[in-house]
Amino acid sequence: MMNGQLQKDLLQLDVLLEATKTQGLEYLNNISDRQTSTKKTINSQMNLPAHGLGALDALGQFNERFEPIIVSTSGPRFWGLVIGGSTPASIVGDWLTTVYDQNSFATKGQGDISAIIELETIRLLLDLFELPQNFLGGFVTGATMSNFSCLAVARQWIGKESGKDFAKEGVSGKINILSATPHSSAVKSLSLLGIGSNNFTKVKPMEGNREAIDIVDLEKKILDFNGKPFILISSGGTVNTVDFDDFEAISELKSKYNFWWHIDAAFGGFAVCSKTHQHLLRGWENADSITIDCHKWLNVPYESAVFFVKEKYKLLQVETFQNSNAPYLGNPLENFSYLNFLPENSRRLKALPVWFSLVAYGKQGYQDIVENSIALANKFGEFIGNNKDFELLAPVRLNTVCFALNGEKSQENVEKFLTILNDTGEVFMTPTVYNGKKGIRAAFVNWRTTEDDVVRVAALMTKIINELK
Ligand SMILES: *Cc1c(COP(=O)(O)O)cnc(C)c1O
What we know:
The chain is α/β, with parallel strands linked by helices. It folds into two domains: 89-357, Type I PLP-dependent aspartate aminotransferase-like (Major domain) (Aspartate Aminotransferase, domain 2); 367-468, Aspartate Aminotransferase, domain 1 (Alpha-Beta Complex). It is built from 14 helices and eleven strands.
């Protein structure tokens, strides 16, 4: 017999969804006025009710306790980390993902549409990024898992180069890895993969305030390996200063030496959508694997990222991710099923929010979003560069501004300044350290951000810095 509360909720589903819609609109329509930070907190010690409250009263509880302290991380002036928001179409896709509640591992052509949608969405993304269709890809929760998935296949590849099957036998021997400025999540992936986070060789960054890899030092380190295969983790947009490795130079090295080339282009990959910045990615199509985050600059809800791996490595990918002791799942190379191609087995229809947003806004839509973010970063960068109280720590290369305070007590005051700024709740930025200097980062990724937001924040910063004097 169906539980009474469930039965009641089933009968008033329209009331429940209507209340949810009203509440969603309330948040989205007022997102610009909502605080970007709060000092309020709550006691999270609720006991499990013996008899449930029903969904409407649960919503009441949520609204009483949690809703007031939700901050507008998805709003136009949350410039901390690299966050982004949700386009209207992506919200439609996300809501329907929940409503249809499909398990997207299901095999293509067996009554489950999820794999078909996912494969189509991957093709659309390859189009957006102007990448050839010789990559296979899949959706994972974020760029961390995307880096993990790519490097897992790379690990299998390097094992095979010496006749070993690491997926079956476990990792053995030294795995050579090179990188200049890897994202922390790529290093974390090395821990998860049993390679070890200490076990990569750091290549020098280029001279002159750069985070990109020094190609001369790279080739020197390659020669030190004496022809042994290795994995190169390169950057398509570092987080501090959005610096790009030289992918054309790396492509040339790739034709001379035997290595797996991975690019972490979590948000930098979107530079391809801008006519003025797409040259930064020239040559990236020669990589073996690429990480892209969708919940950042594509502006779809968390949790969404893709990984691309060259299709010619399909067998390695299956060896890495197959559920090999579940014969009822069939031969993974014959019956395509996502659960043999990526880390998770059961998962939601992850591709749908991206599919909706790509279909709704197309190439032009994303060109506009990306170029708008770049223009705003430059505008904010000009404010910083022209103001004697601040200094740019690096040129504005794409969508991020990395800066410090100027003057005598600038290093002491930077945290104080940032705390006061963030406590206003009008804008949010994050601290960083660059070249040994304490600084602040502002990243422009949200589709809603406008020039007015930049003007408003500049005025606020001027006021705060003057009060600190
Ligand atoms: C954000 C980011 C990651 C990690 O992504 P998550 O989505 O937080 O897992 C990895 N690499 C780069 C370059 C990033 O910007």
